[in-house]
From TrEMBL:
<feature type="region of interest" description="Disordered">
    <location>
        <begin position="172"/>
        <end position="218"/>
    </location>
</feature>
<feature type="signal peptide">
    <location>
        <begin position="1"/>
        <end position="22"/>
    </location>
</feature>
<keyword id="KW-0732">Signal</keyword>
<protein>
    <recommendedName>
        <fullName>Flagellar assembly protein T N-terminal domain-containing protein</fullName>
    </recommendedName>
</protein>
<feature type="compositionally biased region" description="Basic and acidic residues">
    <location>
        <begin position="198"/>
        <end position="211"/>
    </location>
</feature>
<feature type="compositionally biased region" description="Basic and acidic residues">
    <location>
        <begin position="172"/>
        <end position="186"/>
    </location>
</feature>
Amino acid sequence: MRVFALMLLAFGLLFVALSAQAQVATARGKASVPYEGSVFGSKASPEVKERAMREAQVKAVEFYYAEAGEAESANFDAIRERVGANLDKFILDATVLDEQDQTDKRVYTVTVRTSINVAKLRNAVKAGSATAATAKGDKSKLTFLFVSRQVDSEKTFDDRVYQRVDRGVKVDAQGSDKRRGSEGESIRGGQIGTNASRSRDASFEAKRTDTIETGGSTTRKASESTWRIFPSANLNSVFTGIFASAGFKVLEAGFVEPYTNGLMKIKNVENDYKTGNDLDPATLRDVVRGLQAAQVPYLAFGTLDVGLADVDPASGLQRVAVTVTGKILDLTSGIPENISTVGPVQYAGLGPTEAEARGNALKKAADSAARELVSQVTNLGLR
């Protein structure tokens, strides 16, 4: 019992640490600053070293955004000057890993490892977005239809094999026939005698050649899967929080459904995702027309596919992977426009049980997918 309690305590500490790391990132940065010599020597001055240190820290933040993806990197360009002018707000600590003063070239280079306050960076990006500058009453409405699911059954098909055999026969024959004969008569004492003799020679030669040619084809059919839908109440809070913090007026699909003239039906969306990876075109058209009738201009939707659990070799905990895909459609025009896409991207969650590992993986996947979608639409300046 005590061992189990210690395991739960260890997992709790691990979860807290992982949650904290989600808001703090570690990245390296490197900067080189040229300088001019003086009568007192040709070494880098304290001012040059300080400038290189600051530039290296900015490079570390830029490196973090570059790893996060194109959309995040574009967001950093909008706040680069603000980060450089207020490093103490965004960099929690910086450690010098290496420094070189090349006096012959008069260049000072420093490499640092930094701990980045990701939460403040995200707030800075959102503060500079068009949606943040828009009055509450004018903010864009957005609803979302994300489904979390796991394979319930899979039907596989045997290979269909077709074989053909072509047989050919060739016969070469030669033959000859020779005949010889003689006849005669003799008369003696009033009698006639006859005689005849015949001889025949025959020969025949035959040669047979058999040829066999085989061929055919093998037809393989992809397996068919059906999916089991997981309740997504916890995920709704994740998507709502991130889209709302980005400046959207977020409306849960369950509240919007009654105002879509019966066109958008959440059950139809779930049924489509039970048997396939995409919405049926008719279902998607009904959803779009329903949301246009309800005057909701933006729709975010997609799937979170849960994999089978295994054991994480490093921690010994249960590990579950979730693959997420999603997109945001702009419904303001007659034909919907895809303005943001994410995935397929895989995220993993850990836990002492499969259920907890699955829950952690789903939350991580939902959080990451929503942030990537928000980063992309932020670059578009949506209001």
